[in-house]
Structures are given as C-alpha cells and as structure tokens.
C-alpha cells in the first residue's frame, strides 16, 4: 500500500500522514474535487451541446432527468440495507421532523428549479456564450463561500433558529418577486446575493434542527436524508423546470417561489417551529 501511494499519488506523500485513515481522507478530498469539477463542467457545457443538437427546453429537461435517475440507480448497490425506505419513514415520523423537512424541501425547490435551468436561461434569456455563463457560475460559487464563511456563522451566534428560519423564508419571498421582474444579467447579479444567503441559511438551520430532533444514534442517517434533497432536485427539477420555462417563461420561477414561501412564512407565523428557541451550535 505504501508503494501505491508513493507511485500513484506522490503529491500526498509530502503531508506524511500518520495513519492509513489520513491517506484515505486525503484521497477522498481529491476524488470529491475531481467529481465536482466534472459535474459543473457537465452542467455548464451540456446545454450548449443540447442546443447544437436541436433539443428544445423540455427535451433538455427530460435528458437531465434521465441522467439523474441513472445516478439514483446506484443507490441500492451501495448500502441498501442501511438507507432503506422503512428507515427513512421511521425518522420522518419522529416529532417535529416531517414539518421541518417539508419546509426545507419546499422553500428551496423553486430556486432549485431555476438553477437547474440556468444554463438554458443564460443562453436563451440572457444571450450569453459558454464562457460568460461560466463566469456567472463562478460568481455564484464565490458568493456561497463568502456567505457560508463570513455571514452565517455570525448570525447563528446572535439569533435563534426560529428567527433565522423565518428570515430565510422571507428573503426567499423577496428573491422570488425579484426573479419575476428580472430582465438582465445585472439584475441577476444583484439577486444572487440574497438568493445564496437564503439557500445557505435555510440549509444550515434546517439541518441543525433536524439532527437535534432525532436520537444521537440516528444523527448520521438524518444528515444523509438531508443531503439527498439536492440530488432529488437535480432528478425531477429539469423536467418541471423545462415545462415552466417553455410554457410561462423565466418569470414563472419567481412567481412560484414567491407564492410558496409566502405560504410557508404564514405557516411559521401561526405555528411555533421549532418548539424550542435555540441558537445553532
């Protein structure tokens, strides 16, 4: 095994890991970086390839959905006895879990649909070339790093989970209205910051609430369920998003987001969710 790491991955040897586990973690980081790089290359390039092949928006959505389904088919091969539907339903039936999970899914779903179709929107609506679309995706990624690294941590130390949950849903509503009125790339650049803020905040807050709502032995399983939301969005999102975009245009994403999050905000006002007023730890 030592010779393998020295020959195949020489740049990892300089770290002089103290155990095999350290080396496995390092290789995992490398694999994750390569995987994400290829994923975003696929997201950025595939729409231009689809357009050159003559596919319309709905057909492109079908293509993306098929790709997502093929990804999900690997699930039963790895750990099917652990991540079973029965186990998932058991956790979701615990007190306070189902409603928070639904808020997590529903609040970000319209934005997820928009982001799934953004590459097509950047071509047809904004009229951007592939490299310009790549710059916008990079800008969005930088905003995520800034918000998660500099903003969320400070807010969680000063405000309770309920306050931040309601704030993120309210910001999502404002983002929805802004998306409905958006007409240019400049408008999108302005909208991107509150969009990223709401996405990051509601993701962190709901994960925190859900992991504290289950027994410590089920924390890992609950985190796994939470992390399954983005892949599911990538699976069904392109088909739904393609239909909305072709039938109603870009503004439909904004109106759907506005309506969904206003309903969620009113629900949060009426109900004490979560039951305990705590800060994120």
UniProtKB/TrEMBL annotation:
Transmembrane helix listed as a keyword: yes
Single GO cellular component term: nuclear envelope
Pfam families: MFS_1
Coiled coil: none
Locations listed in the record: Membrane
Listed transmembrane segments: 27-50, 62-85, 105-128, 134-152, 164-185, 250-269
Presence of the UniProt keyword Transmembrane helix in the record: yes
Main location (coarse class): membrane
Keyword annotations: Membrane, Transmembrane, Transmembrane helix
Single GO molecular function: transmembrane transporter activity
Domain Major facilitator superfamily (MFS) profile: 96-281
Lineage: superkingdom: Eukaryota
Membrane topology designation: Multi-pass membrane protein
Name this polypeptide is given: Solute carrier family 22 member 18
Gene from which the chain derives: SLC22A18
């Amino acid at each position: 095994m030592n010779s393998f790491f020295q020959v195949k991955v020489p740049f990892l040897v300089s770290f002089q890991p103290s155990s095999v586990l350290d080396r496995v973690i390092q290789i995992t980081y490398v694999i994750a970086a390569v995987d994400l790089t290829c994923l975003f290359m696929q997201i950025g390039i595939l729409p231009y390839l689809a357009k050159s092949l003559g596919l319309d928006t709905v057909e492109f959505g079908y293509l993306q959905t098929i790709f997502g389904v093929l990804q999900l088919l690997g699930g039963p091969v790895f750990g099917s006895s652990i991540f079973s539907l029965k186990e998932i339903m058991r956790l979701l039936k615990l007190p306070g879990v189902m409603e928070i999970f639904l808020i997590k899914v529903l609040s970000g779903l319209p934005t997820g649909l928009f982001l799934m179709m953004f590459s097509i929107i950047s071509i047809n609506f904004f009229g951007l070339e592939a490299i310009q679309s790549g710059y916008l995706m990079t800008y969005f990624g930088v905003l995520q790093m800034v918000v998660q690294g500099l903003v969320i941590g400070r807010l969680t130390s000063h405000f309770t989970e309920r306050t931040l949950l309601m704030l993120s849903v309210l910001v999502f509503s404002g983002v929805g209205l802004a998306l409905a009125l958006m007409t240019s790339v400049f408008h999108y650049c302005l909208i991107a910051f509150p969009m990223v803020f709401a996405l990051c905040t509601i993701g962190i807050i709901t994960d925190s609430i859900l992991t504290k709502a289950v027994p410590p032995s089920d924390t890992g399983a609950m985190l796994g369920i939470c992390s399954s939301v983005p892949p599911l969005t990538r699976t069904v999102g392109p088909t739904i998003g393609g239909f909305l975009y072709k039938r109603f245009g870009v503004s439909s994403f904004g109106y759907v987001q506005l309506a969904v999050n206003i309903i969620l905000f009113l629900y949060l006002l009426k109900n004490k969710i979560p039951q305990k007023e705590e800060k994120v730890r």
